Amino acid sequence: MSTILAETLRKLREEKEISQAELAKQLFVNRSTVARWENGSRMPDAAMMLFLAKALGVSFDTLLSIASESSEVPNVILVDDSRPILTDGVAVLQAVLPGIAVTGFIRPGEAIEFARSNRVVLAVLDIELGTTSGLDLCQRLLEINSRTNVVYLTSYPDYSLDAWNTGACGFMVKPLTAESVKAQLKKLRYPFSMGNTDE
Predict the structure, then answer these.
(1) Integer angstrom CA distances of residue 191 from 80, 126, 147
(2) Is the per-residue pLDDT at 70 higher than 70?
(3) How many CB atoms lie within 10 A of CB 108?
(4) CA 36 remoteness from chain centre
């Protein structure tokens, strides 16, 4: 089963603040069945997906789309106009996400081109990118793929209020650390398979 679907089902259920047992009762299945859906060892059939979508408050098409996502290695990008910060940040992301393809970009235009031809599941963006704003880059990336998780990375916490109005799902203050990355991964709007992490 798609790990992405399993993680999404768990996250949606937790957002609704219902237990596995409560969801199972609504769907007339055993709690162990819900547990297997959420650990990826079993996949609900199409009819059950309809009931799941209704119970979790999402569209049937959304769940089907998640279920059909390929098993390709997810892509994570980091965009920062400082080469030392970019180099260190990519190393941190690779350490936290060993099963993920992490690519760094200094130029926002190159990140956009990459996103057009690769499924980017997480974009970590500096807010000040020379003449370009990370806030604008966020909008461009979400136009390409609305399911990209965007997390801002900046030296200026004052930007946080503006950042929340862009569709981003997180905010980190430089320097990037393993702890801050792990904390943000728990808050992603669209979970993805993270490989063999320590979590």
Answers:
(1) 23, 21, 9
(2) no
(3) 22
(4) 22
pTM: 0.64
Q: State the pairing for strand pair 170-173/149-154.
A: parallel
Phi, psi of 31 (to 5 degrees): -60, -35
* φ, ψ for residue 129, nearest 5 deg: -120, 65
Dihedral sign (CA 170, 182, 76, 17): negative
Identify the CATH number of the domain in which residue 41 sits. 1.10.260.40
Q: Which two tokens stand for residue 91?
A: 């190393």
- What crossing angle do the helices spanning 3-15 and 46-56 adopt, rounded to 10°? 30
Under 8 Å CB-to-CB from 199, ≥6 apart: which residues? Answer: 182, 185
Scored b (16 or more CB within 10 A) or e, 153-167 reads bbeeeebeeebeebb
| pLDDT over 90, % of the chain | 50
Task: Quote the domain boundaries for residue 143.
Answer: 75-185
What one-character DSSP code corresponds to residue 73? P
Q: How far is CA 106 from CA 20, 83, 122, 132, in A?
A: 44, 7, 16, 11
Residue 55, pLDDT > 90, answer yes
**What CATH number is given to the structural domain containing 130?**
3.40.50.2300
* Domain assignment present for 42: yes
